[in-house]
């Protein structure tokens, strides 16, 4: 159980946390690799989670140096197959109930995801009424221009804290600084710590902690079977499902009867 903490806002990752997109990623990837007589194992899959699409593709194909598939070819085939399936991706257990609850109690919420805007729309439009409409467009995507706030326009992906910091500052109006220097370190103790990040991937856990926020980690069950890597930031709470999240442990209103 986490320490009692008065949480004032929440930021959610998308893939593998809110929607069952990881299953589609796996099915599509193995459909592509089957033409080359190879298969992505869970150990390989675990190393892809939380990476940008090009980094993940490079990591994947590094395990199969003998096949002729290039990164651009793989991404092109993957996108074509995935785009057919995104409008059917289901929500993961507990997410609809949690978002409805936070929205009802006026807890500010936002999404910060590495997915591209076009893909975000394909993945979520069929769940607009049930889940995503409650965010009131407070969403940061990986190709969002608003992320280009540091380093001459450079976008720093996870495990850098940029995405969560920008979401808190630009989407939710929190004075959390820019994620660097003494300003951010000071604000971490006052404002960033009032936020909680929900994540499924280890780079996302690192990102949330480096942003100075609390982190609830809801990993794939297979990931829970592996030893937690040494030397990286740890979450404040680990859950097997969002159905196990208890709002009052975080100073949030308890679920109403029937939820």
TrEMBL record:
GO terms for molecular function: phosphatase activity. SUPFAM superfamilies: HAD-like (SSF56784). It comes from the Eukaryota. PANTHER family: 2-DEOXYGLUCOSE-6-PHOSPHATE PHOSPHATASE 2 (PTHR18901), PSEUDOURIDINE-5'-PHOSPHATASE (PTHR18901:SF38). This is HAD-like protein.
């Amino acid at each position: 159980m986490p320490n009692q903490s008065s949480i004032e806002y929440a930021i959610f990752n998308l893939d593998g946390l809110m929607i069952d997109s990881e299953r589609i990623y796996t099915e599509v990837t193995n459909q592509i690799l089957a033409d080359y007589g190879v298969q992505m194992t869970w150990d390989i899959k675990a190393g892809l989670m939380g990476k940008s699409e090009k980094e993940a593709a490079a990591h994947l194909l590094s395990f199969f140096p003998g096949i002729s598939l290039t990164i651009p070819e793989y991404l092109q085939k993957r996108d074509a197959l995935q785009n057919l399936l995104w409008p059917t991706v289901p929500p993961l257990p507990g997410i609809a109930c949690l978002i409805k609850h936070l929205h009802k109690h006026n807890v500010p919420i936002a999404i910060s995801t590495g997915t591209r805007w076009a893909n975000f729309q394909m993945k979520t439009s069929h769940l607009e009424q049930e889940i995503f409409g409650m965010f009131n467009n407070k969403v940061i995507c990986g190709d969002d221009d608003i992320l280009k706030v540091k380093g001459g326009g450079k976008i720093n992906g996870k495990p850098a804290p940029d995405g969560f910091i920008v979401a808190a500052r630009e989407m939710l109006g929190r004075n959390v600084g820019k994620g660097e220097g003494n300003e951010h370190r000071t604000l971490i103790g006052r404002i960033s710590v009032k936020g909680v990040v929900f994540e499924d991937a280890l780079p996302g856990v690192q990102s949330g902690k480096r942003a100075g926020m609390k982190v609830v980690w809801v990993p794939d069950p297979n990931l829970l079977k592996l030893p937690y890597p040494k030397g990286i930031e740890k979450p404040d709470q680990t859950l097997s499902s969002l159905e196990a999240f208890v709002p009052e442990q975080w100073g949030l209103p308890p679920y109403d009867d029937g939820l």
